[in-house]
Amino acid sequence: CFVYLFVCLYFAETHGITFRIQINVKELLDTDVLLKLLFHLPVNYPSILPDISVNSDQLTRAQCMDVKDKLLEQAKKHLSEPMVHDLILWIQQHLKYVIKQSATVCDEKTTLSSGTSTEDGIWMLLLHLDHMRAKAKYVKTVEKWASDLRLTGRLMFMGKIILILLQGDRSNIKEYLILQKTSKVDVDSSGKKCKEKMMSVLCETQVQSRHKRFQTFEVKEYSTLDELQKEFETAGLTTLFSEFVPPLLK
């Protein structure tokens, strides 16, 4: 009933190991479902839970998020012991039920999210990119990720400075970081697709009451540093600007 194909990409980092696994689940909802799983195992794994990203062309974004949440729930049961293989076997056997449950509670989640909002899980991320060779494609990719993960904020260009400011659920922020680090988003000097190797995380923190919540994700270009500074000030992020942006000009 279940046939799966592993296509793994391993690469060692000082922050741990990240790899991809593709699982083809047969005879589910009258179609094949290809799950694309990305596991980031931190240095202290399995004492620390892995970061997990889930994508599938056959599932909606909400369904992918539900699959991810269920995998993390299962991962907690295997804390301090190797778990990736067990998680793969579990989702093969339970994907049908996760999807059905997701459809059942979809309307309820929508009502709750529109009726009761909380700032407790809202985080902010500021990234600095060194360059974009394939700018149009890169920008389109960032916009898609932000939309898929329900993140708001700005992609900001000022001279040679490129900043990405994101706000959203902390788990989605983490998933964005995984995508940014592991996907081929740009091209190298020879024109070949490549991963982002010159990104730096300037700040990752919880949104405070004094901070303005961005309602959308926008791509903006600024002619002067003053214009860029006003963008931060309008969002209540003057300190963030002063601490991290001017040093980039040196």
UniProtKB/TrEMBL annotation:
Origin superkingdom: Eukaryota
Entry-linked PROSITE patterns: RWD
Positions of the RWD domain: 1-98
GO cellular component, one term: cytoplasm
Classification via Gene3D superfamilies: Ubiquitin Conjugating Enzyme (3.10.110.10)
Compartments, record wording: Cytoplasm; Nucleus
GO terms (BP aspect): positive regulation of hypoxia-inducible factor-1alpha signaling pathway; positive regulation of protein sumoylation
Record carries keyword Translocase: no
Signal peptide: 1-16
Keywords linked to the UniProt accession: Cytoplasm, Nucleus, Signal
UniProt-recorded name of the protein: RWD domain-containing protein 3
Gene behind the chain: Rwdd3
